[in-house]
Design a protein that fits this description.
It is found in: Cell membrane. The protein has 128 residues and is mostly helical. The chain contains 5 helices and no strands. The longest helix has 23 residues, at 74-96. The protein is flat and about 45 Å long.
Length: 128
């Protein structure tokens, strides 16, 4: 719980540059990406430390996501969370786990990024 409070204090300092709901969304994405990365190392929850990191990562991710949902519409927030999370996990898999992607996979991920950008830049539903 102290870690969550410390992260919240850091996030509040970022308010100067970014609206707070998007800081919480960013923290949710990072927490979930850490949890997902540790999940790959948990060996189906048979290794204690990666398993604990997975549970903590997902727990913090949902905790921060709940604050983002106070302002950002749920569908938009979830699309951003899922899209950015997919891209970050893919990069981690490529860099650290040496996972290769073919052209259709890369094209699909590019479409996800384009979708998130279209929502952020053109949608009147997204709060800025």
């Amino acid at each position: 719980m102290r870690a969550a409070l410390a992260l919240r204090r850091v996030a509040s300092k970022l308010l100067f540059f970014f609206p707070m709901p998007y800081v919480f969304l960013f923290l949710a994405i990072i927490s979930e990406v850490i949890g997902t990365s540790a999940l790959a190392a948990s060996n189906q929850f048979t290794k204690l430390v990666p398993s604990l990191i997975t549970v903590a990562g997902y727990g913090l991710g949902f905790y921060f996501f709940s604050f983002a949902l106070k302002t950002i519409p749920m569908g938009v927030a979830y699309a951003i969370w899922g899209g950015v999370g997919i891209v970050l996990v893919t990069i981690i898999g490529f860099v650290f786990l040496k996972q290769k992607l073919d052209f259709p996979a890369l094209a699909g991920i590019a479409l996800i990024v384009i979708g998130v950008l279209v929502m952020q830049l053109f949608s009147k539903t997204v709060s800025h």
